[in-house]
Specification:
Chain lengths: 141, 111
């Protein structure tokens, strides 16, 4: 199993560093374009959520991201020190098939994480929020 | 991200290149706000070179669509890459936007 850990700050430049590291790792680990896209989307949604809702926009807080390449999966764990916040408690959008006037954009990011990953879980441990996402490597080409 | 904007006859042609996400929001948001406030023509967004979109990118497009609708104008899309198309499908946005396989088909639909 191969691992890689990055530490970012809760600001836009942190997201940029995260995206660059993810792209580099996916190349080194020969991850398919589809899996790389899914994980990038899921990570951006989760980390943006942590910055905006967990840390309430405060810029100097820590987020640790651990990437693990397993036999059949890419596993990513995202850890932050914000107040307890379970993104899975965010209500699923119920208006996805509604016309434009009735559409609300809230909750869409977390909905996309669920759709683009094979597993999405949350736990609270030692005053940290720990989110784990998993993507099977057997998707796509 | 690069935004290339030209007027092609009766339509604003907008070519997006790169990533429409948290990092590029500000630029894309002010661009689309301005264009949909003017609302003088329909907008065709060519996504051939758009590699990435997330929920904040979708939000910008939907706000623009809502504004344009008030002036009876459209925002339509063409040439979505497979992954981007999935984002639209999973969001239910494929029901809100007219999406075409090629620029020509999109232009034909507007004319």
């Amino acid at each position: 199993m191969r691992n890689h850990i990055i530490n970012i700050k809760s600001r836009l430049s942190g997201i940029q560093i995260m995206n660059e590291q993810l792209a580099k790792m996916c190349k080194e680990w020969e991850i398919s374009k589809d899996v790389a896209f899914s994980m990038n989307l899921a990570l951006e949604e989760i980390v943006t959520n942590i910055i905006n809702h967990g840390y309430n926009g405060k810029e100097d807080c820590d987020i640790t991201i651990r990437f693990s390449l397993e036999a059949r999966n890419l596993r990513i764990q995202i850890k932050d020190g914000a107040h307890a916040f379970n993104p899975l408690d965010v209500a699923e959008p119920t208006d996805l098939d509604k016309p434009l006037e009735e559409r609300n954009i809230g909750g869409l990011g977390i909905h996309l994480v669920k759709k683009f990953t094979d597993n999405f879980s949350y736990r609270r441990n030692n005053n940290k929020n720990i989110i784990t996402i998993l993507k099977s490597l057997e998707h796509g080409d | 991200m690069e935004i290339k904007h030209t007027k092609n006859g009766q339509v604003h042609l907008v070519e997006l290149e790169g990533r429409l996400d948290a990092l590029n929001n500000a630029k894309a948001e002010s661009f689309f706000n301005q264009l949909s406030d003017d609302a003088d023509l329909n907008i065709l967004v060519d996504c051939e070179k758009l590699d990435f979109i997330n929920s904040s990118g979708l939000r910008i497009l939907i706000m623009s669509l809502k504004k344009l609708k008030k002036s009876d104008k459209l925002l339509i899309l063409c040439n979505l890459q497979k992954n981007i198309e999935e984002v639209f499908q999973f969001s239910g946005f494929d029901n809100l936007f007219k999406i075409f396989g090629s620029k020509q088909e999109a232009l034909n639909a507007l004319s």
